[in-house]
Amino acid sequence: MKIKTYFSLVKFSHTIFAMPFALIGYFLAAKITYPSLSQIDWKLFVMVILCMVFARNSAMGFNRYADRAIDTKNPRTQMREIPSGKVLPSAALTFVIINCLLFVVTTFFINRLVFFLSPIALIVVLGYSFTKRFTALCHFVLGVGLSLAPIGAYLSVNGHFAVLPVLISFIVLLWVGGFDVIYALQDEPFDKSEQLKSVPVFFGIKNALRLSVVVHLVAALLVVVVGLLGSFGILFWIGSAVFIGLLVYQHILVKPDDLSKVNLAFGTTNGIASVVFAAFVIMDIIFK
């Protein structure tokens, strides 16, 4: 089976959501830990990247495995790799197990703290797949999973918690939870018919969009708080302006009576937002 089939299975391109924030966490810690950024441990940097890839492959692969029966029923997802027969369920599960093992083994070579925390991280990112069966808060459990990226990368470098990376993790949680609510709008009729839980099912489409706005507003406020507490410079604020502007833009794109641009809002807009924000924040960290 071709590697690109597995990349498609786990939507590898969506790594762009969490990876930039992991890099922010890494460089925040590196600025404190190393006398000069020229002394950065690039071997550790590669291991952090690998952990991100292995964790996300595990999470997404397991999500596809756990949801295979649901995806077969949903017209929007019937052509995904498992329902369409491109990937066997057993092969997908094997892929997940291999990536989980690689994740844990890689953390062992980073430091003891992240190694001992690695099972907890896996429980969160794998457990998300079952949450829509019993809680409308499933979107925010997904947010928690992705929010582990910046704090995990930070801990990989210096092995202790700090306020800024924790706040950045909360930004990721709210940002992801808010845009996942938008993404779930397109499945509201199907989820309701299958008795699956989501914010759109619980509140209705119009109120779900309103909640997403409120959640993203709080995320934007946290961005400002991080900028002030971290005494960041102009580059941070440029990146923040773009990030917040794109949050606003996705809410302009999606309307209760017009969901035709959900994928544009979900994928393209948020992908650009994370990359641009991270690029400017990291440059600010490096040149401060």
Throw out a few tags for this protein.
single chain; 288 residues; mainly alpha; Tetracycline Repressor, domain 2; 13 helices
Give the secondary structure arrangement, pairings included.
Layout: H1 3-9, H2 19-33, H3 42-66, H4 68-73, H5 89-108, H6 112-131, H7 138-158, H8 163-184, H9 188-193, H10 199-203, H11 205-229, H12 234-253, H13 262-287
Walk me through what this model shows.
The protein has 13 helices and no strands. It is an all-alpha fold and 288 residues long. It has a single domain (3-287), classed as Tetracycline Repressor, domain 2. 46% of the residues are buried.
The main β sheet shows up as: none
CATH architecture classification: Orthogonal Bundle
Named CATH topology: Tetracycline Repressor, domain 2
Per DSSP, what share of the residues sits in E-state strands of 2 or more residues? Answer: under 5%
By CATH, the superfamily comes out as UbiA prenyltransferase
Mean model confidence by pLDDT = 93
| Cα-atom radius of gyration | 19 Å
The H/E string reads HHHHHHHHHHHHH
Number of strands: 0
Number of helices: 13
Q: Tally the structural domains.
A: 1
The outline comes out as globular
Percentage of residues in helical conformation: over 70%
- CATH classification class: Mainly Alpha
Compute the separation of the termini in Å: 47 Å
